[in-house]
Amino acid sequence: MGGAPASAQSQSQNATPDEPVHYWSFRPNVGELGESPVTDRVSTQPASPTAKPRGAEFVVAPIPIVNPTIDNGLAIAVGELYTIDRGSPPSGTMGMGFYTSNDSWGAGLAQMLHLDDDRYRALIAGAYFNVNFDFFGIGSDAGDEGESVPLNQTGYGGMADFRVHMGRGWYAGPRYRFGHTTASADLTNTNVTVPAADIDLRTASLGPHVERDTRSDQFYPRSGTWFDLVMGFAGEAIGGRRNYQMYQAAFSTYTSLSPRQVLATKINSCFADGDVPFFDLCLLGQYQDIRGYQTGQYRDRAMLTGQAEYRLELWKRIGVVAFGGAGEVAESFGKFTGGSVLPSGGAGLRFRLTEENHVNLRADYAWGKNSSALYISIAEAF
């Protein structure tokens, strides 16, 4: 199952049957194709072993989708949050569906577990999707030309991820991912071609997932860092029909400038090698790298992006942000020249949805190279 990892984030409070339903952010990158609508990147700080156990909490969230790739729509997420042991953050059983105005839709289920004082983390997820988007071709030049073909991609897939705490905030373990997708496109009067071998394809990959998380908070970090490395080796031996490799690494930092000001930065890199299908290439904007571009307008075998965001809490629940960054895609890291750098910048508003945990509704407007985009979602971009 190709595309971007989706982000899911949750609010957990001590709950009783008489308490109201709380919001829970299920923040899918539903325009980035073929990925489970469930996070593999949630990271939570372990609870104190002496903390009172939290009760089960039913959660539901309607989430507006404003996305330059698949248009506007709505996602509905429902689930149950519960603590399995005193020293672990909440686990969750979750489901989600979405629909957008260009007739894209999908549904998914996930089981996220934190076990044995957060020594073990596991995620099992599956999804089905039917999405419509514009395919611009492969390479920086294809993205600059701006000529695209409407493409429909339908498929299903799943993922299993298991990590063990290695000490000092490090987690490591294997990830297995599989998917089957079919694609169709109207190629009339266009110079854009869709690789014929990728039209109907089953893929599967297996590889390590390593992360280190020292963030002060999972929803609104004010200090700390987060490193995340995923490697996937796809091949026939593990259930696929294509041999290739994927590598993705990201590093984020968070610095408190004052009690109401935070500076966040993120560097992201991606590399794909071998007989890679078009949907598993590096896609600019795939991991909220930089905003202001349609996801997939710029795709190739290598990508490097960087961005910074200034966050200011103004009054009560209201906040603002300003952000900027740049990125580039190329056939390989050795072919980055700096001449095809894609700039990004913008600003946004924040409205805090919850009191105990800092979960924001965000609206961002971003400018790119000859493009712009509006984003509405829940939780920060990174």
Tag the structure with descriptive keywords.
two-stranded antiparallel sheet; single chain; disordered N terminus; mainly beta; 16-stranded antiparallel beta sheet; Porin; 382 residues
Nutshell version of this structure?
The chain is mainly β. The chain has one helix and 20 strands. It starts with 6 loop residues before the first strand and ends with a strand.
Describe what this molecule looks like in 3D:
- By secondary structure, this protein is an all-beta fold.
- It has one domain (7-378): Beta Barrel (Porin).
- The chain has 1 helix and 20 strands.
- It has one helix at residues 140-145, and strands at 7-8, 26-27, 57-67, 71-82, 91-100, 105-115, 120-135, 149-167, 170-185, 200-213, 224-234, 244-258, 261-274, 282-283, 299-300, 302-315, 318-330, 342-352, 360-368, 371-378.
- A hairpin with a 7-residue loop joins strand 18 (342-352) and strand 19.
- The longest helix is centred in the middle third of the chain and has 6 residues, at 140-145.
- The chain is globular, with a radius of gyration of 20 Å.
- The two termini are 22 Å apart.
- The relative contact order is 0.14.
- Mean pLDDT is 83; it is low at 1-54.
